[in-house]
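Hello, quick one for you while I still have it in my head. Could you read through the record and tell me how the tokens relate to the sequence? No rush at all, and the record is pasted right below.
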Amino acid sequence: MEMKRIDKIHYLESGLLAGAGVAVHGFTTRHEGVSRPPYNSLNLGTNTLDPSYNVEGNRSLLTRAFATGLERLVTVNQVHGTDLLVLDAANPDYSYFQKLEADGIITNQPGVMVGVCVADCVPVLLLDPVRRVVAALHAGWKGTAAGICRKGVEALVGVFGSEPRQILAAVGPAIGGCCYEVDAPVVEAFRRTENGWGDFARETGAGKWQLDLAAANVRQLVESGVAEANIEASGLCVSCTPESFFSYRRDGGETGRQMGFIMLKP
């Protein structure tokens, strides 16, 4: 992935998705917004103690940079589940959806930016350039264990007629296996639903494991039929990169949120 800048927005762009030529997308950094510490500067999350006018200002910077309006940015109330919001028709008030509980958004509507906010969790963007459908998924450990990437691919296939092998995926910055220590309840949740636990987790002793959430989601995409060559992961750990990214665990829970976003071109 390559770091880009449009206006005041610094973001990571997947060359794989950009090469399809049908959507704009990215994973934002913390740079160049209006929020003050500890949310400095481009905090895009509404579920913080950062004043709402700061968050709205930051979101306006993002949408203006990509030639759309704040009223066409769709986010949801993320609850670490696997419910998906599907937008398959134009809507006069996209801000309404921010109140709905879900952890993914899928749309075939051009000019509508869909996004998920993260501070350690994995942002996953999907693009079917043939059917012209996009998705933004929020994958924390609960959502990952419950198969949110699998459900996202299934929704593209079932609702929009996508072929898994034509879907492109970008897996954004998240807390890495180097910094993400988990215990037995997390392990059991994965072992109930996922094979290959040992491929993305390493036991460190005393009932603790280092979990690579991004790798777990890449594996899930592949098992859902997405070609490995069609998946690009950033490989960046947000906890190790305080100058560029927020991290909930590193910052003791009081921190901002970056966003994974994608929008079909008109």
Q: What stands out?
A: The chain has one domain: 2-264.
